Each structure stands twice: as structure tokens, then as C-alpha cells.
Amino acid sequence: MKNNEKLGARPETQGEYEKLFTDEDIDRLFGEIESYYIDPEKCQSCGICARKCPVDAITGTKKSPYIIDQDKCIKCGTCLESCPPRFSAINKHLSRLFD
Ligand code: SF4
Ligand code: SF4
């Protein structure tokens, strides 16, 4: 099950909750922050990711690689899933918030 599906679930008991999230999952969710970037060398300026982004954080033109405004991005991951596999232009980076 993907993280966004797990986060949307409404477990009613401690046991159901523990089946959804391990201690490692909790540590990762609260200890890491995701960022999404478009590789300008791979981007084909098709605009699919920009049309799917729920907060209009992606801009670009047919003649230049698209870019993600990190201040607007809500880290939903939709763009990563929507970029056609033959381009695979979007990368996810994980940064530790604290050690
Ligand atoms: S992760 Fe979500 S909010 Fe951020 S740029 Fe991609 S689609 Fe938009
Ligand atoms: S979907 Fe991929 S190739 Fe198309 S504009 Fe977005 S990053 Fe570029």
C-alpha cells in the first residue's frame, strides 16, 4: 500500500494502526522530507506533470524544460507518477530533518 493510501486510511484500533505503519515507517515519515526535481536534460516539455499538479507548482514552455517551484510544492508525488516512463525526468530526493 502506498503512503498516501495509508495516510488516508482511518484505522479504528491500535492493532489496525500498527499493521499500517511500522516503527521504521513512522521514523521515515517524520524524520525525512521529500523533494521533487525535474532533470532538465531529460524533460521533453510535454506538460503532463504540470497539468496533473494539484497546486500549479510546475511551470515551463514547449521550448524549455519544466521546473518545480519548491515553495508551492506540497510533496504529493503526483508528478513523479505522471511523467511518462520513456522520459523519467522527475527525481525524488530524501533529506534527513535530524539525526
Ligand atoms: S510533488 Fe505534487 S505538488 Fe509537488 S510538484 Fe509534484 S505534483 Fe506538484
Ligand atoms: S511530464 Fe516529464 S517530460 Fe513532461 S514536462 Fe513533466 S518532467 Fe518534462
What labels would you give this structure?
single chain, about 100 residues, alpha+beta, Alpha-Beta Plaits, two-stranded antiparallel sheet, two-stranded antiparallel ribbon, 4 strands, about 30% helix, binds iron/sulfur cluster
Low-pLDDT sequence parts: none
Structural class call reads alpha+beta
As laid out across the biggest beta sheet, the strand order is: 1-4
Looking at the structure, what is the overall shape?
elongated
As an assembly, this protein is: single chain
Query: CATH architecture, please?
Result: 2-Layer Sandwich
The string of secondary-structure elements, in order, is HHHEHEEHE
What fold name stands as the CATH topology? Alpha-Beta Plaits
Number of strands: 4
Instruction: Characterize the largest beta sheet: strand count, sense, and whether it forms a barrel.
Output: 2 strands, antiparallel
Spatial gap, N to C terminus: 27 Å
* Bound ligand species: iron/sulfur cluster
Q: Number of domains in the coordinates?
A: 1
Instruction: Please bin the fraction of helical residues.
Output: 25-40%
* Overall average residue pLDDT: 90
Using only CA atoms, what is the Rg? 16 Å
Descriptive account of the structure:
The chain is of the alpha+beta class. The chain contains 5 helices and 4 strands; from the N terminus they run αααβαββαβ. It has a two-stranded antiparallel ribbon with strand order 1-4. A two-stranded antiparallel ribbon has the order 2-3. The longest helix is centred in the N-terminal third of the chain and has 9 residues, at 23-31. It starts with a helix and ends with a strand. Bound molecules: iron/sulfur cluster (SF4) (2 copies). Residues 36, 53, 55, 57-58, 68, 73-79 line the site of one iron/sulfur cluster (SF4).
